Amino acid sequence: MLSLAASPLPATRIHRPDATSHSSSVRLLRSLARSRRADLAHRALLLFRSLQSTPCPPPPHVSLPAVLSAAAFLSALPEGRQLHGLAAKLGLAPAHTVVANSLLHLYSSCGLPDAALALFRRIPDRSLVSWNTAVDALVGNGYHLAALDLFREMQRDTDLAPDAYTVQSVLGACAGAGALSLGVYAHAMLLRELGGDGDGAAVSCDMLINNSLVDLYGKCGALELAQQVFDRMPMRDLASWNVMILTLANHGRVCESVELFDRMTQVEKVAPNAITFVAVLSACNHGGLVEQGRRYFSMMVDEYGIKPRIEHYGCMVDLLARAGFIEEALDIVAGMNCRPDAIIWRSLLDACCKKNAGLELTEAMAKLALEVPDDAVSGVYVLLSRVYASAQRWNDVGMVRQLMIEEGVKKEPGFSSIEMEGLVHQFVAGDTSHPQSEAIYEKLDEIQQRLTSAGYKPDLSEAPLVASVDCAKGAALRLHSERLAISFGLLNATPGAPIRILKNLRVCKDCHTISKLISKLYGVEIIVRDRIRFHHFKDGSCSCKDYW
After folding, report:
1. Boundaries of each DYW domain copy (predicted)?
2. With the C-alpha atoms ordered 393, 398, 399, 404, is the resulting torsion angle positive or negative?
């Protein structure tokens, strides 16, 4: 940690300006802070400390925003807290709006959205920049619904008109929350704010905005709209191609994703980067295209000289293992230039489960996965329990449950959300908190009766660990969060409109089966975005072709 208290710097010679050179010193400080280079940003911190040692330092309301920008770029929280303390001592935080806004950005960059929001609430005179920074802090740290709530608060409680920066953040929040109608509303605001004479020309020519719109519509399950925005772009940068290739891949349009990659590299002559190869390898993974995946991985290394990252290895390991090439996947892991993470071991564990690789190998994969520090360790226990459940080894399932209790491991809670008329409704398993709960469960009973009549039998291996008898397991499956969301959607969706659901975990096999059946029995398209990809259920089948 660098101390920003005024003190001599024996190892660093920096000119100490007098009062007449404040302007040039501040210009230099700003230039260093805006350089987007770590070494120069660090230099900005040193310069600020040096300036504070002079008899007449620059006005703090001018120098603090610049040095806070440097600290934010470096995610230098200890130094940032020192600067916050100095600002508070001088009466500038949160009273001075510009300084306070810079502190908001600092805490956001350091992954502390709660601290940023707490400071935001204390700013007496919030500007549009204050609101934009606070909304962006929530979006950037995954607080998508909270960001949308804050945006609504701005619209409700202030006379401030959203600008392009506001809407850019709102688009990101809508994409993260899967809130399509709110995203369409934000798109309309962009057209109004930047449309100039009303024809939307300014928006259509802005690559950053268009890239965000492709991402928004892709993540909200509106693939056709994403494709439409991409096709109408007058100019595209590498990010444009990357987001469209990945969007197609995530929606199961594997051939189209691969064809777009080939068009980009061979026709448009755009050089791919590491992110492009994550996208195209994801397409190969979703489609089980083993040979193409091998070819693109070799192309990345041999033709483009791109050093594989953990994400590339993860795609290849998952692709090979799920296709049954577990030994080859293990060879890739052995040759990695970085340490395998828990995701890679879980991919191998999951493949062992699905390919019936044998309990010995499966248990070995689980042991390796548990040795890697990871917050999502509960997923390993859940997968292992499913292996035992599939083998009808219920005592071992209970052992896993007991081990989780002893280790203090809690299963990551699953939730499903669905947007209806601009509001996002969120459900957890067995949820009874929704105002329409009684009607939702009545609809669920009706769905269950129709599923049973159609010959549906639950896959009990997907039931929670605590369920000990078949009837309890079946009841537990019936209360999965996505089923509540589907029931709510059937009750409230416009006839003929798709039901769009966002799920924070990977969809389980049993829910995948019943979603296909419901789509056929009720004549409705159900679009589910889980942790891994999209599933478009229609007429009794899924876009993933049951390969996920």
Report:
1. 455-548
2. positive
Q: What is the per-residue pLDDT for 339?
A: 85
- Residue that the structure tokens 């040096």 belong to: 50
74 secondary structure, DSSP code:
T
SS3 of residue 141 by DSSP = coil
Amino acid at 542: C
Residue of 331, 282, 291 whose CA lies nearest to 348: 331
- Domain boundaries of the chain, sorted by first residue: 341-353+360-412, 416-542
pLDDT tens digit string along 325-360?
A: 988 998 999 899 888 887 888 888 888 777 666 777
Q: What would the pLDDT profile of 388-429 be if each residue is shown by its tens digit?
A: 877 777 888 888 888 888 877 777 788 999 999 888 999 998
Q: Give me the phi and psi of 465, to 5 degrees please.
A: -65, -30
Q: Are strands 499-503 and 526-529 parallel, antiparallel or unpaired?
A: parallel
pTM score, whole prediction:
0.85
Query: Could you give the residue ranges of the DSSP H alpha helices within 339-480?
Result: 342-354, 359-370, 378-390, 394-407, 437-453, 470-478
Dihedral Cα 434, 181, 207, 284, nearest 10 deg: 60
pLDDT tens, residue by residue, 157-168: 999 998 888 988
Residues with Cβ within 8 Å of 530's Cβ and at least 6 positions away in sequence, in order, are: 503, 504, 505, 506, 507
Q: In this predicted structure, what is the pLDDT of residue 386? A: 75
Give buried/exposed letters for 409-441 (b at 16+ CB in 10 A, else e).
bebeebbbbbbbeeebbbbebebeeeeeeeebb
Q: Which token pair is 382? A: 């859940």
